Amino acid sequence: REKMVQSINTKVDLVIDATSFTGLTDYGQIMIGNNGFEFYHARDRRKYIQIPWEEVDYVLASVMLKGKWIPRYAIQTKKNGTYTFSSKEPKKVLRAIREYVDEDRMVQSLSFFDVVKRGIRSMFKRK
User: Whole-angstrom Cα distance, residue 85 to residue 100?
Assistant: First the structure.
């Protein structure tokens, strides 16, 4: 039997179905709580992402159709790079995150995909 991962949260504010775009597209659930942001893979319990709030550098949301639609959002960490997700009710997710992450670290970017492209480009330049 696979061991369940120990959650970093002792209080959970929101659990929602989501997709993680880290490497392959993984389906699972996002859990937002008092100690951090977590993603658990639907079928593979060994696949999970845990980001303590103090590790969060920025939260980027790609906003389309004048804010009516948020196709995906990303959490940029201080040490481990950026994790991209999409979920049902993204506004609800971002509101839950805002309880723990400073407003000035929540970035709405229309050019979110440009940021990703620039990141990819700089990876190629570095080599």
Answer: 18
